């Protein structure tokens, strides 16, 4: 049977189809038993390429040795191809991601291991800056279970990033760079008009070699790639550009230097068969991710769509919502939020991402050719949601959660000699909530409340519906943070009264 390999450093895992994801994580496949393999890539050039000075280098002009400016200009023009220009245009907005995660190796007998062992694995991946404040899109499997996301910028500076929101099913995540910025953003292209045979460029952290650039063509479009029994990629771009472990989350560019896809996988054992998620699909998914993240924290009550004339066309308003109270009407075009221009739903979602519940946002909008200004409040979210468990968790504890991966459960049981069935990863913390007051952080894993385990969402639902919890007790909780088990006590909000603020 063919195999798909997911790579995290030198760790890989076998599942049907022979494909691997060239990033630092394993996505939803962590529940499968993996095999440890060593990967070594040796790049051989067919001809030596000498180092040379062309035009300007580090601010030093090559004027002292040129015979004539016209000769140099002709020489430079023949070397500065569209590929060179495209890479130069996009590179400043590409970041290289590094981190560590602990993986259990249950099938490493060929590597000399006996039984189950925990192993610290170095991971690597790539991301692209989509907002000048430092918001970066990458693959979910690059940052999954990584405790500290270390970042190398284009200029060689290093910083860290924090996970903002993620969607494992689409294998996408958004992280935010630490630092004031502004950061250069990736030029945006489209993937609805791609042509088979057109030139493309990949930039990424290939095998840890930061900002590695490779070229190829679009080999095919609309590829559906199965990963395992529960996950698959749909409508991918197939390319011949060289993609390796560490390229995951990096950009696939057109010849104009615009991003047209996010590199995600290659076919193991084949040459020049790689895949990227189309950028139109990426931006739509990221917009949904950021919007859900915002909706968990506060309510504005505005939905809109892109408008050819520019701005975000208001399509619908919640009755009594803050956007309606601020005077907005369907058909208005939102032009700015605070000092940030808005042209698409994603730009609108990103423009309010830094807002806090209760904050008043300045909005500039167009109505019938006249520009107006209003202030719209971000009303605190009461926890209303279509998922009763998520609603209770947000109201009573003040957290949004998702199930932890199976690899985390196995690792915790091995390290602590326990029999935990699982845990819930904290993806968001409501300001002023019981969780916030006790210092619970995004990325912590909730293991239990009182004497009950929170191994999955069903467990959490049963706990929150228990009479002892509904009265709003002082509850003992257990969390894991960077492989350390912590506990504390928090005063839960009573479900019979108003929620905590």
Description:
With 501 residues, this protein is of the alpha+beta class. It has 3 domains: 1-40 and 76-278, Thrombin, subunit H; 300-380, PDZ domain (Pdz3 Domain), CATH 2.30.42; 388-491, Pdz3 Domain (Roll), CATH 2.30.42. It is 18% helix and 39% strand. The strands form 7 sheets. It has a 6-stranded antiparallel beta barrel with strand order 14-15-16-19-18-17. The chain has a 6-stranded antiparallel barrel with strand order 8-9-10-13-12-11. Strands 21, 22, 23, 24, 25 and 26 form a 6-stranded antiparallel β-sheet that branches. It is globular.
Q: What is the CATH top level name of the largest domain?
A: Mainly Beta
User: Using only CA atoms, what is the Rg?
Assistant: 25 Å
User: Which fold name corresponds to the CATH topology of the largest domain?
Assistant: Thrombin, subunit H
Sheet having the most strands: 6 strands, antiparallel, barrel
Q: Outline, from the CA principal axes? A: globular
Number of beta strands: 33
Low-confidence stretches: 1-18, 24-69, 104-117, 496-501
Percent range for β-strand residues:
35-45%
Q: Within the largest sheet, what's the order of strands?
A: 14-15-16-19-18-17
Protein name: Serine protease Do
GO molecular function: peptidase activity
Family: Belongs to the peptidase S1C family.
Domain PDZ: 289-343, 376-458
């Amino acid at each position: 049977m063919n195999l798909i390999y997911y790579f995290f450093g030198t760790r890989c895992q076998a599942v049907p189809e022979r494909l691997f994801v060239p990033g630092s994580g394993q996505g939803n496949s962590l529940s499968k038993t993996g095999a440890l393999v060593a990967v070594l890539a040796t790049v051989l050039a067919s001809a030596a390429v000498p180092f040379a000075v062309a035009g300007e280098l580090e601010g030093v002009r090559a004027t002292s040795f040129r015979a004539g400016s016209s000769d140099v200009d002709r020489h430079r023009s023949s070397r500065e191809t569209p590929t060179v220009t495209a890479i130069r245009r996009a590179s400043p907005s590409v970041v290289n991601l590094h981190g560590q995660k602990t993986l259990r190796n249950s099938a490493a007998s060929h590597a000399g291991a006996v039984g189950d062992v925990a192993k610290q694995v170095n991971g690597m991946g790539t991301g692209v800056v989509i907002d000048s404040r430092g918001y970066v899109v990458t693959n979910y499997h690059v940052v999954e279970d990584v405790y500290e996301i270390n970042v190398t910028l284009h200029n060689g500076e290093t910083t860290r990033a924090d996970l903002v929101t993620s969607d494992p099913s689409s294998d996408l995540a958004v992280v935010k760079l630490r630092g004031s910025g502004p950061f250069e953003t990736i030029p945006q292209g489209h993937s609805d008009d791609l042509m088979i045979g057109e030139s493309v460029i990949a930039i990424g952290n290939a095998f840890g070699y930061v900002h590695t650039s490779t070229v190829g063509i679009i080999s095919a479009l609309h590829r559906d790639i199965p990963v395992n029994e529960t996950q698959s990629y749909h409508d991918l771009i197939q390319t011949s550009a060289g993609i390796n472990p560490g390229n995951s989350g990096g950009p696939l560019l057109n010849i104009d230097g615009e991003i047209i896809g996010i590199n995600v996988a290659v076919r193991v054992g084949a040459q020049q068969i790689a895949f990227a998620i189309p950028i139109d699909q990426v931006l739509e998914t990221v917009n949904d991710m950021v919007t859900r993240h915002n909706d968990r924290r506060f309510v504005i009550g505005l939905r809109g769509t892109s408008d050819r004339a520019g701005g975000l066309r208001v399509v619908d308003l919640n009755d009594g919502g803050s956007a309606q109270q601020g005077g907005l009407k369907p058909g208005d075009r939102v032009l700015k939020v605070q000092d940030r221009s808005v042209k698409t739903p994603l730009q609108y979602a990103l423009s309010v991402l830094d807002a806090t519940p209760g904050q008043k946002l300045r909005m500039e909008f167009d109505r019938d050719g006249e520009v107006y200004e209003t202030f719209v409040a971000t009303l605190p979210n009461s926890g209303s949601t279509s998922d009763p468990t998520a609603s209770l968790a947000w109201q009573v504890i003040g957290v949004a959660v998702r199930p932890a991966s199976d690899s985390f459960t196995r690792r915790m049981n091995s390290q602590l000699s326990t029999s935990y069935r699982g845990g819930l990863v904290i993806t968001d913390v409501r300001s002023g909530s019981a969780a916030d007051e006790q210092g619970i952080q995004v990325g912590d894993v909730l293991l239990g409340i009182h004497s009950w385990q929170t191994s999955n969402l069903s467990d959490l639902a049963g706990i929150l519906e228990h009479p002892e919890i509904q009265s709003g007790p002082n509850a003992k909780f257990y969390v894991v943070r960077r492989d350390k088990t912590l506990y504390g006590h928090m005063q839960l909000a009573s479900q019979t009264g108003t929620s905590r603020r």
